[in-house]
Amino acid sequence: MNAKLNLKKEVEEIISKTTTKMDLGSGTKLNKELEELFKERGWISQSKVVNELGLSIDFEKERIGVEVQFGNVARLYADLFKLQVMSFSGKDKIDVGIIILPKIEYAKRIGSPIANFEKLVRELPYFKTALQVPLWIIGLEE
Hints:
Elements: H1 5-16, H2 26-40, E1 44-50, E2 55-61, E3 64-68, H3 73-87, E4 96-102, H4 104-110, H5 117-123, E5 135-140
Parallel strand pairs: 3-4, 4-5
Antiparallel strand pairs: 1-2, 2-3
């Protein structure tokens, strides 16, 4: 991300502008808020990964793919897979993947079993041979 410092700062600014309070059921509201903020900055929403399968990632801009995950843990693994496919598998559409998810205290407030930053960071080393796309993992907290 340091090679595209302007986009790194843009993502940080987008996240800093969110106003949704994390509590039970707020994941959907925060997803919508982030969608509006990313689109305002020119990010492509629901960029296709594989047309035939109907897979898409949340946002894409200048070869950076973003997945926002405030859902259950199983969806997080699907997000990792989609970013990998966008980078390799003949697609070559992104150079970096970003995953935005709550830190564990936020996740507990949203509901259970919600994906969280700490769990992903703890598990990523087990996927290092399967995931070749560089990832920037962002954990949200109050």
